[in-house]
Design goal:
Blueprint (H helix, E strand, L loop, with lengths): L1 H19 L1 H18 L4 E3 L11 H13 L6 E6 L3 H12 L4 E5 L1 H4 L11 H7 L4 E8 L4 H14 L4 E5 L1 H34 L5 H19 L5 E3 H30 L5 H28 L7 H31 L1 H6 L10 H29 L3 E3 L11 H13 L3 E8 L3 H12 L4 E5 L1 H4 L11 H7 E2 L2 E8 L6 H18 L4 E3 L1 H35 L3 H23 L3 E3 H30 L4 H33 L3 H31 L1 H6 L10
Helix pairs in contact: 1-11, 2-9, 2-12, 8-9, 8-10, 8-23, 9-10, 9-12, 10-11, 10-12, 10-23, 11-12, 11-20, 11-22, 14-21, 14-23, 14-24, 16-19, 20-21, 20-22, 21-22, 21-24, 22-23, 22-24, 23-24
Length: 699
């Protein structure tokens, strides 16, 4: 006891010391915020999904080898130029090849001699590249020059006579996301700030409280965004969602500290003493809440898929800065702004939640039974979603890009181009491989040394222009065109078939590159990541909850309520017949778990404080009454933030993630008011036997 008193006194003295030098504390945070605000624009943003694949993935190794040998990747954009003749088409092909950022151009002239009459050409080959209205070009575009290069290619086609230009492909989707993201981040943050201010005005008792909250959390957000410079670059998902999630998830830390200060003001006349005791009493509450959220986000870092690691680091780091900002900057600001804070006080605008608590208790049993009945189907459904893994999910419905993509597909059908690299010189094996590939379903064209020069023609006398396309650094390149849709089951089956076909002649001594090939490896990687992320997130949060409540059963009850909400959230796309981007599936698992556990801690603390003097039924009702404002405030902010992301973002992946966040926050909030209270009441005998503090046994 004496040791505890000494530690308490020491901590109190530290808090008083910080408050006494509050101008220095505020100055330090102001300087750090300024520096981070200046360096934030220099943080690189990566918009590619496949760049985050593990370096030892077969498709990554293959792409690296192809870039080393041939200096480029596979075609990642299609351009359809209408209203041009053969001469104009050839001119356009040459000028497209000169565009900075375009490393390769394929068109009809790449596979047939366009000087020959059309009647002697293979009709199937011609129809792959030409219609009565125009010509198709397949472009290989460097990712770091995508937006500029694609804008220039469109300008080239229009300048040389094309009456209509349509473009599609991964490079186009990525460039569109890159151009829109920076502007949309600003709009989303402005919408979020407006929502936060409105909600805080309704739930606070001073018109000045939202100002302090926004300054404190805003400082944490800017510091987090600026310190991303140490990561080199961040994914576009981290950029557009990191700030909004940090703002929404960590707002309740500030609410808890301010409410604690208000209570301490009733005990201590001196504001500095009241704040010092508020810091000391609120420290464990805020720390425990931040810790579970931190580990929820940190669980993403155990993934092999780099986007998860990147977002996990950004979000977990944001929680650390939010905690530091709330615990050290906010107390100093409150004391410095105490005069306007008190002068603008008003009565609470929201009514008492006593009636709300009574309603929750009356409907608790039937709603809990419905949730239990739905839990198993929701769990099964959420794993059976039709998942989208790559950039095709970025395209917004009804956008110009979607219309242009459909126009190209209507004219030429779905198409992908893959590359197989095999050792140069094994012409007999290459001939057998090419023959085997040409017999495969969905293969519409094959270009290689064998098809261009013939096996009997020595490489020494092959025209240099032909040799450069198919031979380099000991590799012979086979370019394959397929009539498959990217990220379809047919395309995934073709990856397995192609690897099996080429492997029959070359074993492992070959390389296969293509858009769906990379996404196939991405799919395998994230599927392996899923159970690891779940185990780490649930295990680490359960451990923190176990230490916090000194109980074995309480973490199980809390996590059960939260997991059911997550299952319900993720089952909606399956039940409605839609698809779900796998990034959203992985991220929401960690985000919803990290946010919902905050609500659960707020409610559980209120419940167990009252359970010491009340029976389980009364404690459940009273806990709802006293925790409702805090939970509703935090959850409503996250719900509105998700809705803002969904409405503003044109990137399909981000928009869908906003829907998942908003719906997940609503379901988690619902669980806190009806399902978790019921679970705690039902599990009350078990909790008494597995918890280290004494709870009265009366019913």
């Amino acid at each position: 006891m004496a040791l505890w008193k000494r530690k308490t006194k020491t901590m109190l003295n530290v808090c008083k010391g910080l408050l006494h030098h509050r101008r220095w504390v505020v100055g330090f945070f102001a300087l750090l915020t300024l520096v981070c605000g200046v360096i934030y624009p220099y943080v690189g943003v990566n918009y590619s999904m496949t760049d985050y694949l593990p370096k030892d993935s077969p498709s990554v190794v293959a792409l690296d080898d192809m870039k080393s040998a041939f200096g480029g990747g596979t075609p990642n954009a299609r351009l359809y130029a209408e209203g041009i003749d053969a001469a104009q088409a050839e001119t356009i092909s040459k000028e497209l090849a000169d565009v900075d950022g375009v490393t390769e151009v394929m068109w009809l002239g790449s596979v047939v001699d366009i000087r020959q009459p059309a009647s002697v050409q293979d009709a199937k080959t011609v129809s792959t590249w030409k219609t009565d209205d125009g010509y198709l070009y397949q472009l290989t575009v460097e990712s770091d020059k995508g937006p500029t290069a694609l804008r220039d290619t469109r300008a080239v086609a229009e300048r040389d006579g094309a009456t209509r230009v349509s473009m599609s492909g991964d490079a186009v989707s990525t460039a569109d996301a890159q151009q829109s993201t920076a502007q949309q981040v600003v709009y989303i943050m402005l919408a979020a700030v407006a929502v936060v201010v409105l909600i805080l005005l309704l739930t606070s008792n001073s018109w000045f409280e939202p100002v302090i909250f926004l300054i404190v959390i805003g400082v944490a957000v800017v510091i987090n965004m600026g310190t991303n410079i140490v990561l080199g670059e961040i994914s576009f998902i981290s950029q557009i969602c990191g700030a909004i999630l940090q703002l929404a998830v960590s707002m309740d830390y500030a609410i808890v500290l301010l409410h604690t200060f208000r209570r301490e003001q009733q005990r201590y006349a001196d504001p500095e003493d009241a704040m010092a005791h508020a810091m000391m009493r609120g420290f464990s509450v805020v720390l425990s809440s931040a810790a579970v959220t931190f580990f929820g986000f940190l669980s993403l870092t155990v993934m092999r898929f780099g986007i998860g690691v990147n977002m996990g680091v950004v979000l977990a780091k944001g929680i650390v800065f939010s905690f530091l900002s709330v615990m050290f900057l906010m107390p100093c600001l409150i004391l410095m702004m105490l005069k306007p804070l008190n002068a603008l006080r008003h009565r609470y605008l929201l009514p008492s939640f006593r009636r709300f608590a009574e309603v929750c208790q009356r409907i608790m049993l039937p709603v809990a039974l419905v949730i239990i009945v739905c839990a198993v189907p929701a769990y099964l459904a959420q794993d059976r979603n039709d998942f989208v893994y790559g950039a095709s999910g970025m395209t917004a419905h009804g956008s110009v890009q979607e219309r242009e993509s459909k126009r190209i597909d209507d004219a030429f059908g779905k198409s992908e181009t893959w590359v197989v690299m095999v050792p140069e010189g094994r012409w007999a094996d290459e001939q057998k491989t090419v023959d085997a590939i040409e017999r495969l379903d969905h293969v519409t064209g094959v270009t290689s040394y064998i098809t261009e020069a013939g096996r009997a023609l020595p490489t020494a006398i092959v025209p240099q222009s032909t040799a450069d396309q198919v031979l380099s650094h000991g590799w012979s390149r086979i370019v394959i065109t397929l009539d498959v849709e990217s990220e379809s089951d047919t395309a995934y089956d073709m990856v397995e078939t192609m690897r099996r076909t080429v492997g029959a002649y070359y074993g492992d001594d070959y390389r296969l590159v293509g858009n769906t090939v990379s996404i196939y490896d991405l799919r395998d990687t994230v599927r392996q990541d899923t159970p690891i992320v779940r185990i780490f997130s649930i295990g680490s949060i359960a451990l923190v909850l176990m230490i916090m409540f000194r109980s074995i059963s309480i973490p199980i009850v809390i996590l059960l309520a939260i997991e059911v909400a997550i299952w319900m959230n993720l089952s909606v796309p399956y039940l409605t017949g839609g698809s779900l981007n796998y990034i959203g599936y992985l991220v929401i698992d960690a985000v919803q778990l990290g946010a919902a556990v905050d609500y659960a801690i707020i409610y559980a603390r209120e419940y167990f404080d009252r359970r010491r003097t009340m029976n389980a039924k009364d404690a459940a009702r009273s806990a709802i009454h006293h925790s409702a404002v805090t939970i509703l405030t935090s959850a409503t902010i996250l719900i509105c933030a998700g809705i803002s992301v969904n409405l503003i973002a044109t990137n399909g992946v981000i928009s869908e993630l906003g829907t998942l966040i908003g719906r997940g926050a609503f379901l988690s909030m619902l669980m806190m008011f009806v399902f978790l209270p019921w679970l705690l009441r039902v599990a009350d005998p078990l909790i008494q036997r597995t918890t280290m503090f004494r709870i009265p046994s009366r019913k």
